[in-house]
Design goal:
- By secondary structure, the chain is α/β, with parallel strands linked by helices.
- The protein is built from eleven helices and 14 strands.
- Helices cover 35% and strands 23% of the residues.
- Helix 3 packs antiparallel against helix 4.
- The structure holds uridine 5'-triphosphate (UTP).
């Protein structure tokens, strides 16, 4: 099962980040010098994927413009001899073949994924949430693809989150399973369970490899939590699903604390000395 396509849902309203997201997509929120969705596309490309479908919607045109060629800007940079910057701009348009489809109503992540059905066809595909950045550690999508190919099944990235946060996530039921090994079967999932009912604190992180069976299951799924079509509700019905524990740092850019944390932590590791010096100085002053 060769996996060559990725789907990136990016049609949500981003209400947790209002008013910033009133007129701009949350997936375009900058983390240091790049918009969030560029990190996501780069993760897919690094996993060997060259065909990406982004699910957009009204008000999301900035995403298409970002990945398009920018003739005027390129000409200006060339004329000014700013070749480093020119190179950075050109590379964005050359990352992959990027396709777009618009989700007509915001009816949930499951509904957004259904819009990929025609493009994906009968093949398994990688799914990466457009508002989640994963950095450091083992490249996440690449490791999911390896597992999916080895076991011929759907595979999800899971992360142990603090118990008091489980009610914000889809959570895996791994009872009677050795979930300490690298990859393990998952019995079931629950979407946003109250803490006392959560079967584990292994949360879905926003990276998946799914078999195309998911589309039929989504079609047959009723709207769930929040009156949205929940992807987790369809994943529960897949014949077999495996989990891989995330080895890396995950940032959900859709909420302000996590977005800030991404900027600060990634600034500390940035290869531009000025940027990490500025943050280190700030942190030093704060700890005095
Ligand atoms: P979220 O639930 O975090 O996005 O969806 P949201 O609805 O934009 O967030 P808030 O709660 O209003 O702040 C996770 C991912 O799924 C996409 C989002 O764009 C995000 O990348 N999504 C969500 C869709 O594409 N369509 C939807 O109907 C819902």
């Amino acid at each position: 099962m060769g996996i060559t396509k990725a789907v990136i849902p990016a049609a949500g309203f981003g209400t947790r980040f209002l008013p910033v997201t009133k007129a701009q997509p949350k997936e375009m929120m900058p983390v240091l010098d790049k918009p969030t969705i560029q990190y996501v596309v780069e993760e897919a490309v690094e996993a060997g994927i060259d065909d990406i479908l982004i699910i957009t919607g009204r008000g999301k045109q900035a995403i298409e413009q970002h990945f398009d060629k920018s003739y005027e800007l390129e000409e200006e940079l060339k004329a000014d001899g700013k070749l480093d910057r020119l190179d950075r701009v050109q590379k964005i348009a050359d990352l992959a073949d990027i396709h777009y489809v618009r989700q007509k109503e915001r009816e949930g992540l499951g509904d957004a994924v259904l819009y990929a059905r025609k493009h994906v066809g009968d093949e398994p595909f990688a799914l990466l949430l457009g508002d989640t950045i994963i950095q450091n550690g083992t490249p996440c999508t690449e490791s999911l693809i390896d597992e999916a190919e080895a076991h011929d099944t759907s595979v999800l990235s899971l992360e142990r989150v603090p118990w008091e946060q489980v009610s914000s996530y889809g959570v895996a039921d791994t009872s009677d399973v050795d979930s300490t090994s690298g990859s393990f079967p998952v019995n079931d999932f629950v979407e946003k369970p109250p803490q006392e009912e959560a079967p584990s604190n292994l949360a879905i992180t926003g990276r998946y490899v799914l078999t195309s069976e998911i589309f039929e299951l989504l079609e047959a799924t009723e709207k769930g939590v929040g009156s949205e079509l929940q992807l987790t509700d369809a994943i529960r019905k897949l014949d077999a699903v495996r989990g891989v524990e995330l080895d890396g740092d995950r940032y959900d850019i859709g909420n302000i604390p996590s977005w800030l944390q991404a900027n600060i932590e990634m600034a500390l590791h940035h290869d531009d000395g000025e940027i990490n010096k500025a943050v280190e100085k700030l942190l030093r002053e704060q700890s005095l």
